[in-house]
Amino acid sequence: MFADIMKYKELLYFLVHKEVRIRYRNSFFGFFWTLLEPLGLMVIYTIVFSLILNVDDSAKGQNIDHYFLYVLSGLIPWTFFNNSMKKGTKALSGSSSLIKKVYFPREIFPVTMLLSNLVNFIPAFALVIAVALIVGQPIYWDQLALLPAFILLQSVFILGLAFLVSVLNVFYRDVEFITNLLLRGWMYLCPIIYPISFVTESNNAMIQQFEWLYFLNPMAVIISLYHGILYQGQTAPLEYVGYSIGITLLVFIIGWVVFKRLNRRVGEVI
């Protein structure tokens, strides 16, 4: 697959550049929306969950200093996932004119959506590190050194899902609406606005019983890995990181196999 894509690397570069350029065309702030969107959400969630619901107060003793930074360090990886999935769902159905005109590996379309959002994600997460340095939040450099591995894990998971939903959406347009609905709920199943220790150290019997199910959500584990760069003790247990790597690889394989099988009929249906 990747060998075929590399044969069309110039086309891939063109499509990624086009996607990034079009996204912010006729926008006053342009590329800065990459930073403004998560910053805006950070302000909203900080006001609601810190000032009104006192989530950070209830988490004292669990290393949640600078709650706004905790929210931001989770929101930016989630925004990368959320935007990639929304764009990835329409990767094929939104490129019907190009697909009908010329042949090239159709895997390029989901990969394009992933890379265009990755271009936005990297400077946005660099902002998190910069803010941490400004406010004096400790940075765990051994975890920061693993950041490329965290990004790779998340990218593989996104790409596997994008392969699956993009090709299914060609045949069943309901997939787009289902994906958007699931993404809204999925966010609250990840430790973005609450510390992961609320799950691992909970006294609630039901949470303790189904803790393993929570950590079978790869995005919950992945976001906790990003948090671990700034907040010690807010990373998922190591065994669940292993499970998430296995689930990610499984999702990628399933997504790619389904994509390859249904890809043959995309030109006819689209």
From TrEMBL:
> How does the record classify its membrane topology?
Multi-pass membrane protein
What InterPro entries does the record tag this protein with?
Answer: ABC2_TM (IPR013525), ABC2_TM_bact-type (IPR047817)
The record's family statement is: Belongs to the ABC-2 integral membrane protein family.
- Asked if the keyword ATP-binding belongs to this entry, the reply reads no
- Record keywords: Cell inner membrane, Cell membrane, Membrane, Transmembrane, Transmembrane helix, Transport
Q: Where in the cell is it found?
A: Cell inner membrane; Cell membrane
Spell out the molecular function terms from Gene Ontology: ABC-type transporter activity
Name the domain of life this protein comes from: Bacteria
Q: Which biological processes are named by the entry's GO terms? A: lipopolysaccharide transport
Instruction: Write one Pfam family the protein is assigned to.
Output: ABC2_membrane
Give GO cellular component annotations, separated by semicolons. plasma membrane
Where would I find the ABC transmembrane type-2 domain in this sequence? 29-262
Q: What is this protein called?
A: Transport permease protein
Q: Transmembrane segments in this chain: where?
A: 28-52, 64-81, 108-135, 147-172, 212-231, 240-259
